[in-house]
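hey
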């Protein structure tokens, strides 16, 4: 188990993360509402995407983002290729990084922080880049 390195991590990091996460939600509440409505329309349903990610001490949490690809499937029930499912709205979200703003809720919950490494999804955790 990881122990805090110094006073910042021990006493200030979590309160700072919580404050920044809450401020992001309060300041951008209107943007969340707009993107939820637009996402529901353009993504044909649920505007949110969740993905399991490794967090502190390897604990798995669900990262939340705005969906940038719809869930269209072929006649056999398989998802269509990414390039087909990524529409103009999704490309706009990715280009502007607006798909990332729901992560403020992960920060408030304590699953992730404002400062720190971004863990890749679980499919890549065992891959060595060396």
């Amino acid at each position: 188990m990881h122990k805090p390195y110094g006073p910042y991590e021990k006493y200030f990091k979590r309160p700072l993360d919580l404050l920044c996460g809450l401020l992001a939600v309060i300041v951008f509440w209107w943007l969340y509402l707009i993107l939820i409505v637009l996402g529901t329309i353009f993504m044909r349903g649920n505007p949110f995407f969740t993905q399991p990610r490794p967090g502190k001490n390897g604990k798995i949490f669900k990262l939340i983002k705005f969906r940038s690809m719809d869930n269209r499937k072929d006649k056999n029930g398989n998802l269509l290729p990414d390039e087909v499912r990524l529409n103009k709205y999704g490309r706009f979200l990715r280009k502007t990084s607006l798909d990332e703003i729901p992560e403020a809720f992960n920060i408030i919950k304590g699953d992730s922080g404002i400062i720190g490494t971004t863990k890749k999804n679980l499919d890549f955790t065992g891959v060595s880049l060396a």
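The longest helix spans residues 7-27. The radius of gyration is 17 Å.
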